[in-house]
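We treat protein structure as text, and this decision shapes the records that our systems exchange. The tokens are whole numbers drawn from a learned vocabulary of local backbone shapes. Below, we set out a record of this kind in full and without editing:
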Amino acid sequence: MIIYIVNPGDTVDSIASSHGVSAQSIIYNNQLVYPFPLAVGQALLLSEERNSLPVADNSLGNSTAENSPFPNTTNYPAYVGGYAYPFISRWVLEQTLPYLSDLFVFSYGFTSEGMLIPPALDDTFMIDMAKSHGVSPILTLTPFGPTGQFSNYLISQVVNNETAKQTLIQNLTAQIQERGFEGVDIDFEYILPEDKLAFADFVRDVRTAINALGYLVSVALAPKTSDTQAGLLYEGKDYGLLGDAADYVLLMTYEWGYTYGPPMAVAPLNKVRQVVEYALTKIPSEKIHLGIPNYGYDWTLPFVQGNSKAATIGNVQAVQIAISQGSSIQFDEIAMSPYFTYVEEGLTHEVWFEDVRSLSAKFGLVKEYQLRGMSYWQVTQLFRANWLLLAGTFTILQDR
């Protein structure tokens, strides 16, 4: 398995010839579009030629296949989660499930009285497809208010009201038993500082009920680097308390570069490392998942705070933009992230995204710190090279 950076004058055929692989495998691995032009600086995943492409055999708790194109790879055992909305295409889900341990169905809301609000679209096919692949479908619980935004008022109403809390827990257990979910993920954001203890108690109470059914409970954590980090995203989430209350946690190590912020890497490795190192002072490594973004952003310059808004794009789409605009892709060695600029209709754009180089660096953190695994936000768009790289790096676990 090789990561190759495209040089001026390279073609798919010339790269295939010089590395002893087929042009078709390069096209397949990297989702290249006919007539298969390349961008200078583009990172390609090359795999040694074999009779079959890698498939994760989850029934064996393994990411291997007969005649795997990733021979002699020492895999590190890890759990792999992926969030998805019910509008995910069945084809993308079919392509992705072989590389997952858990599929987080996004999402279920609730009322201030503790009644569950299911997704607007039917998620039954996600549950069924996940289970057919040996993947656990996980109910993701979010406190979305009437506007579709996270509501800390709604959180307060439930975590501080014993009747509402128990009603919500009863509805969660009923939903799991009736629909076939195999766990709960609690994704609450903007928790008020005064609700910190009550929220941790809520997570612990949910865990007690869900563990009784034989399943696990996880909780998503905003990316903190200290106990005293200010801001509504951080103050209501106590890493120590929540790491103890949940079976495992997800570090949301992304969104440094975000829709309304200035252009920068979505998940710069130097910043991600700081979060992991802080988390390890509060939570055992075997309870931590690293958050990995499966997307990028396209900003129009100049950036104007309060006015600018970046467009969310897929990682494959980002490369296609670079190719269509004749842009060379650069790589920031500190953030360990690819980026490029282009001009369209007189406006300059700056794009940051993920490629196999940036993902390999993040996988390295999981192995370096011996974390439980990683969870992707989100898997609605297929990035095949990511999954092939993952399959060559980790043993995907299924046993609990």
Residues 293 and 377 are 5 Å apart (CA to CA). The chain has a mean pLDDT of 93. The first helix runs from residue 12 to 19. The first strand starts at residue 2 and ends at 5.
